[in-house]
Amino acid sequence: MPIKINGQTYYRTSEVCIRSQVSRTTLFRWLKEGALKNTFRDRRGWRLFTEDDINTIFAESTRLEKENTSPSSNK
Fold it and tell me: For the chain, how many structural domains are there in total?
């Protein structure tokens, strides 16, 4: 369930995983790798995410990279 603090809506890790369709393990790996620079924590130290954070995570989860399959790369 989202929480509001000072007029801003924040989401907990489990909600972010559901909404962005990313596993908890993947989310924490991306956080460790620096995918999100400025995350928030509540008084217990639990991570809180904004709607923009969720959009960033979802965009990363649906990003495609073109694989180089040219003949010269197969040598």
Answer: 1
